Amino acid sequence: MIDPSDIGERSSEGYSDGETSDDLAVKYPSATGSYDTPKSISLLPQQCLYDLINKVDVSVAENSKLTNLAHTTDQDYYIDQLNKPFLYINSAMIEPIQSVILITTKTYQFSENVSEYLKDTPIIFGWQNIYQMQASDISSNIQTCYRSLYLHLRQHLVFSYVIGLSQTKIDTIIQLRKNCPRGRQMFHFIGYQFPKITNRGISYYPISSTNILSFESLFNIISPPSCFLFDCDNAGIVIPIFEEASKHFVTPSARKTDGNQASDWFCFCATSPGEELPIIPYLPKDFLSQCILNPIPLVILCHILQNYRTSFPTENFPISILNDILLNSQNGEIERNKISLVLLAVADAIASDNLQPFMFKQMFRRDRTTSRMFEHFIVAQHLLQPYGIHPQSHPRLPNLSTHQLWSTLESELSIWVSSKISGRPNIEFDFFNRVLTSFENTMDNGYISQVLLALMCHAPFSGFDGAKRSVILLSQLAARSQSNRNMLSKISIFHAFFARLVSNLSAEELHSISYIVVSLLQCDPNSVFDIRHDLDISALPNALFDRNVNCQTRSLIAAILAAVIDTVKAVEAFCSTAEFFDSLTQEIPIASPQLQLWLLILVKRVFGSFPAISGSFTPSGAHLQIAACLNHKSPEVRAAAIASLTAFIGERGPATALIYLASPLLFDMSFVVRYEFAQFLSRFFELQNLDLSLLEKIQNERNSKNSKNTKNTKTENFPENSEQKIENSEKNENEEEDLTINGIIDKIVGSHVSLERTSDSFIDFVHKCDDINNSEKSDEYLVKAITLYSDILEKDPHPSVKQAGSRLKKAVFEGGEISDGDTDALFNISLRQLVNSGQYKVSEEINEEKPFTFTPFHSNDVPACSAHELLVAKLTDMIPYHVIFEQTKYSLAVASPAKSIIRLDEGLHQFGRLSCTDAAITDLRTTEWDDVPRIIIGSSDGCVNVWEGNHHECSLTFKATTCSANESTYQLVSPARQKHKFATSNFNGGVVLWDADYSQFIGEWKGDKAKMTSLEIAARDDTTVISGYENGLLSVIDTRQPHLFSVSSPNYNLGGIVKIKSSFSSDVIINTMSHTGVYSAWDARMWEPVHYAQINTFVDECDIHPCYSIAILTPNNGNTMIVSSSGKVLCTLPNLKNVSSVAMHPTLPIFACSTQSGEIVSYQLAFSYN
């Protein structure tokens, strides 16, 4: 466990463990305390609604645009699986060192040289020649040296120095561990002038065969989490002993954790078993100790000894020369830091290139102290290799002493050490400049090695001139692919990037490093635990509403704040103030769609556990400003809006009004929006104390209606205003109930409301919702609304939404478990979309619509033609009964009674399959928008699914008609050719128009009560929708006239309409084929026949070519035939039996047929005009 004493530690070396200082936390009342208040009967208990509406900009939806983020993926379809906490259990974190015990030999033994030959040579210990020191000064100098080194490595640790080892000292060590029961303890043993350690353990004074501290006992005394450093001969023998001891170690109850604490220990050994440290007088006797804690002097010394010494050195060597280089020279400390940066970059890159990712992340990224020790241990491997010494560690690191990158370091040191006369070069600049040049060149070639990337990750934090350029290049690399981001996440130092983010940066660098941080958080959410406690992050909240900062950059900053909210409580404190809500209300109307999205997600993340206090948001009207986004053109913003409204449902008044304001989202095309709406309702039900005794009354009313065979989707009436009497809302039993989408929404708010994106429509909607809130029966209407919502959501075609609706309904009626917590699904999806959009630099937002180009076709009557078979394919696992060509290709989409769709390429080979519904497929259409093929599927349960590109799941799935789950409807669909929208049929013969770009309901038009059998949006005029019915009626709707409809009934006996096909050759020509064999064309504006022909047969299946005046039809009894617009039979297909479906290609003279035996046959038409 993390020691509580570390929490809030003001240290530049400390790291967060997921908790922060309590003084930054915002205290909330309990959900069952302050929020369990008597209901307020007004949307605004202390403020006039009219005044508040004037404070907010309600035109935000009217002026909205798309976010232009990356598209959703197949993974997003399973949104309930993404509904998991952004942060997972932080089991991989490493506890930092809290205390150190340093053990050296007794003072009088330091000056005793082991050899007569070496009696006049220096004894280097703690970078002091103790041979020339007074015995009384030795211990104090050693203590001062190592205390400062450890405190430089990590502040606020407990340092204890033990001189010599005896039973009394062992008891002292035991007591020291008891005094620091939590946290990692470091046992540091320097074996100079101690007896050589053996498998039995460490000999202590007085030396005897029995006075030995066994390593098993030592392991249990220090006890994990722990760290050991043995700087002595034969040191490697301790590792296998410790490994065996850890298997039998029992964690004290005071330190029990969920993890395997017995294995939580590290060990550094200067030598392998049987090896002895080199007896070279100019090397320090505490070689490994100095290398791990202070490697720069040792690196320089070893380089000099191995490359430049040609004679015996001068007096006081090596102390004198090291002091001259690092201490006495001008800017010595600066030079030392430059070498340190280069050295650590090299060691870090070597480790990343040779270790498994998990091991590298654990030892070199989780804790700064641990990572520094392992980096310096790798340096020790390299320095001791020329002397035949092989240091060992636990966890075991491979021998990295011969990596080729060491030669680069040696060459840099050679230039630096030998340039004393002419002035030392800037080793940091030279090294990282070469790294930057290599990185740019290899990026152009498309491949970056792991070593080079690791070096590059250190460049932004160096002082060379290219640091800014290195940040931009790293962000560009991250934007290219997910694999690049994964590699960057494994190698980069998150806390360093985050610390730089909150420093003073240029606009370009701020954006690039923000994108890097967002990418790292998306790849590894637990990176937030690396953020230091004492880091001042005020620069980020300040930039959030700074309009001098680009909106894209602020979107990235908002995403970062939303990601770190659980660990950096200062963010929560900032977002809980009235000033924040004031700024939010002012920013949302003018922000870019992407910034709007992330501001709303930030609100959702901040108040995910507890709602906001009404006094903080009510004066600014933030809840109304966010509610105005519920009709935003971007489905992501709509989803974020309803998700963020959970922040305002702590008190009954505002919460109840929001329930009604959100009602149009029931029929949103986007399953993400509907899922978030279901989560919003669940959260509302959890926080509000509803009068569930009203459920019995509602159930009785339902049972009464069911007994009269009324439709079980009928909705309850709500009063138009608070004064309206309940009897005024009662309907005549014989009066037909309006079950259109508009009709259901109207009943919720008690009268007609407009669902347009206009300011007046929204204001009118707010007032009517507030009227419900003020009515005497507000409780009853609220419970009725909740039950209605749960009914509709329970029948949703998307499995995740359906499951959420079922849980809600069960909780309402049976008191079941409503959910297993709040949702981060939208946050996880949006974060991935933001990263995948690749915004590594600020770019201009492009929202221009692409002009639609149309190639004119000429419709001439064809005198004669012949059909030539092209390909035949046998489908062994399905019987096709819907077949249709894709728009610009030869490929086909085929539907089967098995409720699945397959795609066939031009060779009739299957290359895609989808099962998206449990109901019968009633219509299948294809279109191509932005060069992406889309298949639109209608099913008998009133649902529509959109399958696009090479995805394996639907991008859209929604309920297109208001029929109930146990009713069957002949669901028709028709895509527009020019704009990204399509029409669907309603169960009552009406037409509904949908916007595919915005994933949003556009409008609804009533139609004939007869069964609709065909639907078509005019190819050259997407404002015209034509529908045909089984009674022979044709209806033409002008969608520029909202909520109006125009039905034309020509005085011709057409019979039931089988097919309607818009002509490509004219803006107004509509071709139709009826069941009685009437082939006609109509002017959709004048509604006059262009041609009219009677074919003497009844037609079951038919398709009409939009470019040529021909149709293919399957008679009731007879051969499939091709006919002209004059009714002339051009050719027949006598060999084609039991045809189940026919399809003409949209532009080419090709058609295809499917048979009940499972065959797909394609044909080429050859025309003859002679």
Report on the structure:
Residues 722-732 have a biased composition (Basic and acidic residues). It comes from Trichomonas vaginalis (strain ATCC PRA-98 / G3). This protein has 1170 residues and is α+β, with helices and mostly antiparallel strands. Among the domains are: 45-86 and 535-698 and 749-840, Leucine-rich Repeat Variant (Alpha Horseshoe), CATH 1.25.10; 97-109 and 119-249 and 261-407, no CATH class; 1009-1137, YVTN repeat-like/Quinoprotein amine dehydrogenase (Methylamine Dehydrogenase, Chain H). It has 36 helices and 38 strands. The strands form 10 sheets. The chain has a 6-stranded mixed β-sheet with strand order 4-1-5-8-9-10, sandwiched between helices. The protein has a 4-stranded antiparallel β-sheet with strand order 11-38-37-36, with no helix packed on it. Helix 8 packs across helix 9 (295-307) and helix 17 (467-480) packs across helix 20. The longest helix is centred in the first third of the chain and has 23 residues, at 332-354. The radius of gyration is 38 Å and the shape is elongated. The N and C termini lie far apart (91 Å). Residues 1-47, 709-735 and 846-859 have low confidence and may be disordered.
